[in-house]
Amino acid sequence: MGQGSESGFQHVTRTILRGLVTVIPVAATLYVVGWLAVSAEWIMGLAVRAVLPDEWYWPGMGLALTLPLLYGVGWAFDHWLLRGFIDATEALLARTPLVNKVFNAVQDLISYFRRDRNRNFDQVVSLELAGVTVLGLVTRHDLRDRPLGLRSDDRLAVYIPGSYQIGGFTVNVPRERLTAVAMTVEDALRYAVTGGMSYKARIGTAVDDAGAV
Prior knowledge:
By secondary structure, the protein is α+β, with helices and mostly antiparallel strands.
């Protein structure tokens, strides 16, 4: 009877944990999206009420104005005339004591998730280290312009991310030791960050389709 009771308890525990695993990502996503929306409405709402009479303001106006504002910032970032001003502003923030700590941390976080032309991760590979297979991301194919001691004609720079993004390291590996992996960069990062628990095989995807390193 004790074993049956313990088994029932384990079943309930596993079911609750499964429910938590299902609910937490959705709840966290909704919370973050809601927080961003409320913050945008509050900040832009203050700006609107500072310019327009209070009776002209209606709830949601701040959030509605945030989208075109963000579009304008994105356009300015791509425009070559304003890009220099934005770069100079970012450089000033990066050099300002105390402010640079916050700015650099936020910038690193945003650039980690942002996918654009400046992103360096361009291929997922695996390599053998001490008898185990390690997942890595190619960050540089050409090391001939690196400082003396890192310069190489036949090696690639590969970033090895840590589980839950705690740590990680970069290695320069001979090309012939790398094997291309049929995963997107996003899938590889998700796989590494969650300790291999999140990846789901995609129908029609095979290792043979990964291509050359």
